């Protein structure tokens, strides 16, 4: 199919299938966990499934039948958990060569747990090459293995979906490493693919899922294969399972829907083997916000960002700044020219209304920003600055701006605004300070901070403290004297801190560093402050000062 004909076909499909309801099938707990070093506890997995059910995900694959202890524990934990209308599924293989289907462990496990997990997903070899080389059996035997497995599961009352493994490679005549088959083998492979598909149709499986197992397909190919199947078997329901090895996962899933697929398989966060499965949050947002498909209700769609963030937390992952639609930077602008345009014409640099997915536009301040960004961000936090005040903030905070300090900490930006507006109470200031940091040949370390503070209208006072490191010592020294005047400081504590080297190549040993600190107190959300300087201890001290000032402001001390 040529690109022109594909584009024309896509437009016709889009007209016909506009806002058609499409199912979501999540495989985060099976295919997604094939990603290295990705883990989730059973308790978090249950919460994750409940969140997906509430959001409107239609199917969730919870694991490979009987593969490991996690699957067994999760099935047990779900026995008393309500997942609403979301169907739970287990994944399994067709019976082995020379094995009675009733004795096949995958089938036995799925039948045993059918009461709580009533859906079986059977993976079937649909590419002739895999039948011959991986299964080492005949095409006829593979058809029989698939037939008997599906029949047995049906007879035992399970709903059956079939994953046609390597379907896109079979349909496009590709072999190992994406190489093209010779014309004769390509013809035989395509015939076998359609023979397996026809058998699944005749057995009335619930969904026949076309898998782009290697992630090597293009949208044009997906449109042609899915479109051909839906025309040939109009009463069958086809799904699509995409991977992102070539970066086409989202585009391929979109092409599948426009060609008639009723189900899209993937993982909520795009996790999975190699480069990952298709990211369902991106598929949902990118298509539904353009009225190309309806995956969930508009009300549920507004919870997309919340769902994604809870999923990242469940798997112990940070939300990527640039994650499409759900990332912190998805609807943000840091560029000065863009910020200026946003002031005059809100939404000028946004492709959709962020509120529809539960997000809000973000205006950031960094080295690329100008006065407009500072003004917009100050307005967003309720401390509006005029043009001259914004310039004063920029002039007074060049290292912080260029070093991403205000990107890391809204608290520090808020305090910077208050300093420009002269609304920050003059509770304390650091007049001077020094760090003594000594180590001996045996690895023993002695760190002491000494500083002179001006507290309110009092005379200057000097305080010292020892710590496990400079940040700890500086915090203790400041706290030791300030707590005498502000006892509420005893309730707040220093949490984690990180140090990031900046512009190392430009300045070598004189590079700036950004220190980011977190603080916490019972009953309060943690807050983050930042400092930037060519001296790490100076940067840390700035972040510590902001942390103390913010807590005193919060408690009106």
SSE map:
Blueprint: H1 3-16, E1 23-26, H2 42-55, E2 59-64, H3 69-77, E3 87-93, H4 105-112, E4 119-125, H5 128-133, H6 139-155, E5 159-165, H7 167-172, H8 183-202, E6 207-211, H9 219-232, E7 238-241, H10 249-258, E8 263-266, H11 280-288, H12 298-301, H13 304-314, E9 332-333, H14 336-344, E10 362-363, H15 371-380, H16 387-396, H17 398-402, H18 405-408, H19 410-421, E11 428-439, E12 445-455, E13 461-467, H20 470-485, E14 493-501, H21 504-507, E15 513-520, E16 527-533, H22 536-554
Parallel strand pairs: 1-2, 1-8, 2-3, 3-4, 4-5, 5-6, 6-7, 7-8, 9-10
Antiparallel strand pairs: 11-12, 12-13, 14-15, 15-16
Helix pairs in contact: 2-3, 2-13, 9-10, 14-15, 15-16, 16-19, 20-22
CATH architecture verdict of the largest domain: Alpha-Beta Barrel
Q: Please estimate the helix content.
A: 40-55%
Distance linking N and C termini: 71 Å
Structural class determined from secondary elements:
alpha/beta
CATH topology of the largest domain: TIM Barrel
Number of strands: 16
What top-tier CATH class of the largest domain fits best?
Alpha Beta
- Low-confidence stretches are none
Gyration radius, rounded: 30 Å
Number of domains: 3
Major sheet characteristics? 8 strands, parallel, barrel
What general outline do the C-alpha atoms trace?
elongated
Measured by DSSP, the beta-strand proportion falls in: 15-25%
CATH superfamily of the largest domain: Aldolase class I
Number of helices: 22
Mean pLDDT across the residues is 92
């Amino acid at each position: 199919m040529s690109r022109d004909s594909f584009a024309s076909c896509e437009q016709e499909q889009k007209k016909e299938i506009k806002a058609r309801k499409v199912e979501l099938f999540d495989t985060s707990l099976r295919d997604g966990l094939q990603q290295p070093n990705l883990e989730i506890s059973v308790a978090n997995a249950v919460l994750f499934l409940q969140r997906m059910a509430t959001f409107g995900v239609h199917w969730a694959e919870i694991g490979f039948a009987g593969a490991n202890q996690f699957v067994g524990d999760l099935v047990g934990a779900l026995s008393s958990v309500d997942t609403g209308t979301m169907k739970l599924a287990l994944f399994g293989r067709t019976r082995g060569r020379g094995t009675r289907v009733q004795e096949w462990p995958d089938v036995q496990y799925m039948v045993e747990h059918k009461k709580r997990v009533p859906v079986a997903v059977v993976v079937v070899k649909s590419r002739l090459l895999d039948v011959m080389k991986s299964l080492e059996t005949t095409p006829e035997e593979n058809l029989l293995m698939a037939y008997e497995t599906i029949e047995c599961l049906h007879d035992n009352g399970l709903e059956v979906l079939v994953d046609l493994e390597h379907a896109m490679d079979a349909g496009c005549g590709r072999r190992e490493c994406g190489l093209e088959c010779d014309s004769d083998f390509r013809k035989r492979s395509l015939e076998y693919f359609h023979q397996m598909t026809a058998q699944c149709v005749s057995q009335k499986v619930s969904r026949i899922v076309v898998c782009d197992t290697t992630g090597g397909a293009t949208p044009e190919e997906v449109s042609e294969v899915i479109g051909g199947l839906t025309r040939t078997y109009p009463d069958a329901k086809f799904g699509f399972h995409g991977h992102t090895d070539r970066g086409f996962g989202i585009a391929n899933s979109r092409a599948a829907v426009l060609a008639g697929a009723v189900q899209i398989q993937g993982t909520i966060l795009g996790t999975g083997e190699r480069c990952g499965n298709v990211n369902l949050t991106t598929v949902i947002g990118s298509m539904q916000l353009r009225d190309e498909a309806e995956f969930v209700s508009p009300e549920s769609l507004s919870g997309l960002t919340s769902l994604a963030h809870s999923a990242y937390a469940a798997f112990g992952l940070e939300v990527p700044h640039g994650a499409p639609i759900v990332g912190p930077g998805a609807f943000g602008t840091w560029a000065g020219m863009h910020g200026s345009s946003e002031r005059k014409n809100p939404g000028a640099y946004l492709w959709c209304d962020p509120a529809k997915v539960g997000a809000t536009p973000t205006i950031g301040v960094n080295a690329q920003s100008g006065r407009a960004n500072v003004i917009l961000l100050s307005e967003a936090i309720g401390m509006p600055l005029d043009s001259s005040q914004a310039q004063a903030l920029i002039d007074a905070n060049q290292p912080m701006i260029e070093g991403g300090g205000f990107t890391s900490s809204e608290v520090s930006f808020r305090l910077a605004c208050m300093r420009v507006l002269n609304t920050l109470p003059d509770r304390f200031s650091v007049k001077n300070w020094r760090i003594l940091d000594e180590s001996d040949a045996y690895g023993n370390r002695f760190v002491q901070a000494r500083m002179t503070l001006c507290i309110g209208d009092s005379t200057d006072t000097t305080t010292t403290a020892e710590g496990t490191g400079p940040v700890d010592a500086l915090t203790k020294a400041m706290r030791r004297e300030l707590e005498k005047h502000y006892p509420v400081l005893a309730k707040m504590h220093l949490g984690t801190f990180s140090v990031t080297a900046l512009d190392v190549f430009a300045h070598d040993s004189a590079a700036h560093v950004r220190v980011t600190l977190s603080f916490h107190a019972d009953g309060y959300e943690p807050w983050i402050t930042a400092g930037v300087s060519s001296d790490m201890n100076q940067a840390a001290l700035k972040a510590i000062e902001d942390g103390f000032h913010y807590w005193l402001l919060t408690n009106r001390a």
